[in-house]
Amino acid sequence: IRMSPSTTLYSQNTENSKTLPEGPVYFPIIVAESKHHIRIVGGRIVGTEAGTPTDGIVIINCENVWIEDVYIENCRNGDAIYIDKDNSEIFINGIIYDYAVTSTTANAGIDIFNNKKGKISISNCKIYGGSKLNYGMLITDSSNIQIVNLEIYDCLSNGIWIEGYNTYSFASSNTTMTNIIISDITNHQGIRITNATDIIISNCLISDIQSSWALYIDGSQTNYIQGTNINTRTCTQGIKIVEGSNIQLHLCWNGTSWIP
Fold first, then answer.
1. Is 176 in contact with 200 (CB distance < 8 Å)?
2. pLDDT band at 20 (very low <50, low <70, confident <90, very high)
3. Calpha distance 108→132 (Å, rounded)
4. What is the value of pTM for the model shown?
5. Which residues, in sequence order, are CB contacts of 102 under 8 Å at separation 6+?
6. 209: helix, coil or strand?
7. How far from 233 is each of 47, 56, 115, 177, 208, CA to CA, in Å?
8. Residues 57-84: tens digit of each pLDDT
9. In a designed cystine with 127, which of 50, 69, 109, 154 is the match (CB 3.0 to 4.6 A)?
10. Phi and psi (nearest 5°) for 191?
11. How large is the C-alpha radius of gyration of the chain?
């Protein structure tokens, strides 16, 4: 699918839908399930500001998918991009997501769930939450993810949340994040890592975390964090590790002092 810059796809209620565990039915604008060699380039995707929950792009159990330079708006109650069920070789580059619905919240800019086989690469993306988007990025029970040059602004809950799903027996793992900017998070953490292993974070700037920790780690192990800079003037609290092992922090500013 190659769209010109002037092409716009709008949300409609169709028979294509996905159901999250313990959640409602969502209607995606573009959906691919059990397909391979898919390319979505350019154009604009606009969700609905009222009515049925909407996702922008849904990828389920696919192989070799490239999503590039797509502008996405207002996926009410849903995700701009939702990736589920062991996809292989997913490349996301140059996505801009702008959520500006004031009447209700949305879930995430990029939501990765139950993906443990193939690699997912995300680069050069910007997410604007409008104080109503819960998560800039949500990674649940997933592995083998590489994130480079990601900017997240004005989210309600977490900038990035990496988690195992419901229980410590399902850990997310092998995620690398480089050159990350997170700013203006209203209720929770800039980066939250719970039940996750082998997470590497480098060159990250966190600011304007209004009511909680800039970086929060719980129930995790073997994580390496380098070059994280927390703006003390605008963050309420710095770094908190509740439970974990073999967690290394180097050259980080924790809000009050340097960690060498």
1. yes
2. very low
3. 10
4. 0.88
5. 130, 132
6. strand
7. 36, 36, 37, 24, 8
8. 999 999 999 999 999 998 888 899 999 8
9. 109
10. -125, 130
11. 17
